Amino acid sequence: GGGVASLATFGDAPPLARAERALSDPEAPPSEGVRTIPLRVRGSLAGVLLLRPEREAWDEHREALVHAFANQAAVALENAQLYERVQEQAATVERRHLARELHDSVSQALYAILLGTHAAQRQLPGSPEAATDALRYVESLAQAGIAEMRALIFELRPESLEEEGLLGVLRRQADALEARHGLASETDLPEEEPDLPFAVKKALVRVAQEATHNVVKHARAGAVTIAVAPSAGGWRLTVRDDGVGFAPASDAASAAEPGHLGLTSMRERIEAVGGRLAVEARPGAGTVVIAEVPSAPNGSPT
Asked: Please, are residues 298 and 274 in contact by the beta-carbon 8 Å criterion?
């Protein structure tokens, strides 16, 4: 008991307007029986605690409790603001990534389709066979563009994992590799969907995406195999290619080298759901990425 409190942060009105007026003159008496307590974080004003006491007289004990609460509220506000900034930075990074992908793949595919269509139109009157070949090329470009868009849509809508399941998404990834990059893609998947938490499936999908991205960008491979199989107490995802491979080295030394990009990220994703990641590679002998996860990990993030 003892009063009614409300919290105002910057952007709130009208409580904040009243609080700002009070803060502009700390010596001014409280208006309308409202006590104003600033919430300061590292010397900056993060918000204001507005308190309307039931009675005017406050003893030292109550005053100390109010200020202790204000200090805790200031810490909570700082944490919320830091979290919001991190989320904004992550969203910015993701938007830049998608913009690059759209520019490097879909926009180029559309431009190539336009050129191929113009070529077919020019050849159609005098050389129907050449026009047919050009149209076949346009068709293949369109299929590749559709596959690319589906892959990007998955990144924007990870809930498709809930609709299609882990196996469906991995099959689509393999199809996209074939359509977009001309790789011979195979899948070795169980008949039934693995019984895994959504967070674990999402981690496996992201690892498969990163591993196949490395294959496309660095491995100079001709074939890729994506496999899922039960392992001791869980499941194992394997992404295997027949590319140039690399000489294994420490994460710190290899993280920036071609063919090693994303290994740290993949490992962190898998360890976050209680699993482990292994990479087997030799120069000229391809690369195998193995992610093993338990069926019931502890503290899996969503």
From this structure: yes
